[in-house]
Amino acid sequence: MTKLPVAAGLALALVAGSALAADLPSHKAPPAYIPPPPTFTWTGLYGGVNIGYSFNAGGAGWGYFADPLLLSGATWTANPSAQGVIGGGQIGYNYQYSPWLVIGAEADIQAADINSQQNNWMPSNWFGGLAALNTNKYVDWFGTVRGRLGLVMPSYPNLMVYGTAGFAYGYVSNTVSVANYPFAAFPVPFAQTGQTTSGNTNTGWTAGGGVEWTPMAFPAWSLKVEYLYTDLGVTNQSFFSVFTNTATNFTAANQSPTRFHTVRAGLNWHFNPFASAPVLAKY
Prior knowledge:
Elements: H1 3-23, E1 44-56, E2 61-66, E3 75-78, E4 83-98, E5 101-123, E6 130-153, E7 156-181, E8 192-213, E9 221-243, E10 248-271
Antiparallel strand pairs: 1-4, 1-10, 2-3, 2-10, 4-5, 5-6, 6-7, 7-8, 8-9, 9-10
């Protein structure tokens, strides 16, 4: 009979303990740390490819025959319309100075098929004749090294409008052939002819601007559309024109500017090897 009261007491003690435990405050584990999404920035290195089209930006060339014996000759002007497809690659670095300002530098190199051919006939003051002029210009490749200054609207951090300017260089080839034909009646037909070819790496300057956009779903990539005006200076050529019957040499000269517009589209891949690794909270 003594076991029953003892068992009943133990049961009451267990029930009371459970009730007291239910009244104690509970403690939950802290939620897992979820880092905020990274803030978009243009800062970092990038490299990419581009393709576009270049076309003549004007600037007439000129030339002349100088005939010291007859005190006459021929002068001409020429404005060949050089144009062609270009394509190449670029590499650069951006630094986002503030939410709305990006500064940077970029270098690019382009393979080019910019060329022109022009044939002109013009009156000559050499016995009332005609002068024939043939000009050929080729830009085989060119490159630039430029600074960039970009503006960003904080509400559209992945869209940048920028201006750019800097140094330009490229290989320019010019060939000029001329012939001066008199109309006067001479016993034997004759003419004054000459030709010169020049190929050099010219230097100059370039300036322009563009728009670059990064899709937020692919923040390591960007697309750009860009315009550049490029001036590679003036090519001066001096040569001899030959008086065909007497093989007498007379001085001739030609001057040809190389200026062109370029419109191109590009794709860039952005990376920043100098960025610090993300810090993860520990508990």
